[in-house]
Amino acid sequence: MLDMRPDCERCGVNLPADEGGAFICSMECTFCAECADALDETCPNCGGELLDRPARVGKTLKKYPAATERHFRA
After folding, report:
1. Nearest 5 degrees, angle CA 26-CA 6-CA 57?
2. Over the stretch 14-54, which tens digit does the pLDDT of each residue have?
3. Considering 8, 37, 65, 73, which has the largest number of Cβ atoms within 10 A of its Cβ?
4. How far apart are CA 59 and CA 43, in angstroms?
5. CA–CA separation, 65 vs 68, rounded Å?
6. C-alpha distances in angstroms, 27 versus 30, 58, 59, 62, 67?
């Protein structure tokens, strides 16, 4: 199951699990669309490809809530 991280690691913007606009690599590093574009869709941490993160909604989100630990390092 994906770790639905709540923020962009690069700029800190909120990335709700039930909305689009988040990009992840295979290691689940998470970035907003703007930062993923600026990074040329390449993860700066592992070099992996950044792809659209699927949304988690409804009953599934309630049963498996998004992570709360933020990863943005100012």
Report:
1. 85
2. 999 999 999 999 999 999 999 999 999 999 999 999 999 99
3. 8
4. 31
5. 9
6. 9, 25, 25, 24, 15
Please indicate, yes or no, whether the overall pTM of this predicted structure exceeds 0.85.
yes
* Cα distance between residue 57 and residue 54, in whole Å: 10
The b/e string for 27-56 (b: 16+ C-beta within 10 A; e otherwise) is eebbbbbebbeeeeeebeeeebebeebebb
In this predicted structure, the answer to whether residue 73 has a pLDDT above a threshold of 90 is no
Tell which CATH architecture fits domain 1-60. Answer: 2-Layer Sandwich (3.30)
Structure tokens at 53: 């993160």
